[in-house]
Amino acid sequence: MSRHTHEFIIDRYATSHYMPDYGWPLFLRLVEIFGEPFAKVIAAQDKWTKAGMMDANLSEVMKDIAGLALETLPMVFGKLRPDEFVPLAERIMSGMTKNDKPLNFHADFIGQYLLTFKVLKEVITFQFGDFLGKSLPASNPAPVRARRA
Hints:
Elements: E1 4-8, E2 13-16, H1 20-51, H2 58-79, H3 82-92, E3 97-98, E4 101-102, H4 105-108, H5 113-132, E5 145-148
Antiparallel strand pairs: 1-2, 1-5, 2-3, 3-4
Helix pairs in contact: 1-2
């Protein structure tokens, strides 16, 4: 199977599938950091779906979301040291391009914290979407093209 490239229009970023010897260790590190909180979010999502979001009391859902954030954020930050975030983000974005030029993490994301997280989410969804399934859908901010590299 050949590698695919994923272009997404958040300032024209593009990434290609990782090779297995690069992707597996990175995936396992992400599971180590986010696995338990992710499972809690999925469980909450299932609860809200079964309860019927249209029938749910919005204030109760918001309380659940706030409680979930308070419960899961310490789990994430307990496993992700502050000095590890930038190197991990750089590993996730390795090989990316912006406007067909190699990505320069420090220059491209200076003062762009929300954009950094949007791009990270998009890359993680593309790279590991077959495992994540529909539980973490791509944001599809604009048309997306997949092509063989």
